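Subject: design request, 123 residues
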């Protein structure tokens, strides 16, 4: 009986939680390849989060580093080929953020120098 009531409560409350989640969070699937991110341009309102679903479809490992105001945040440390991961980040300040792959393998330069980068406009 208790589980029935609990289940009913969850059913009744669920739509509000889901709506809240949809309003405050944007899900973006980013495909990493050798050497690009797609999409490479994202716009979001300040105070919202992005749930990044990152898929490596390249032959080499990649990472995802967020750069804003000369500060770096390593969102994905290392993602091997044919792997996928998720990370959620709250964008609390307006501005233009860059996202980069800083891995330098097998190329002798970081992948962002070969074009593996993108931007997130927070407004
Ligand atoms: Cu890379």
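Subject: RE: design request

Done. Sequence follows.
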């Amino acid at each position: 009986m208790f589980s029935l009531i609990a289940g009913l409560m969850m059913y009744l409350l669920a739509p509000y939680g889901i709506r809240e989640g949809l309003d405050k969070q944007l899900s973006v699937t980013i495909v990493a390849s050798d050497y690009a991110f797609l999409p490479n341009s994202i716009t979001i309102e300040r105070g919202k989060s992005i749930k990044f679903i990152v898929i490596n479809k390249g032959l080499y490992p990649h990472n995802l580093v967020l750069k804003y105001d000369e500060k770096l945040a390593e969102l994905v440390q290392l993602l091997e080929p044919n792997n996928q991961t998720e990370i959620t980040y709250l964008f609390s300040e307006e501005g233009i953020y860059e996202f980069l792959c800083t891995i330098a393998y097998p190329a002798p330069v970081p992948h962002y120098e070969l074009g593996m980068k993108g931007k997130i406009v927070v407004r």
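The helical segments are 2-24.
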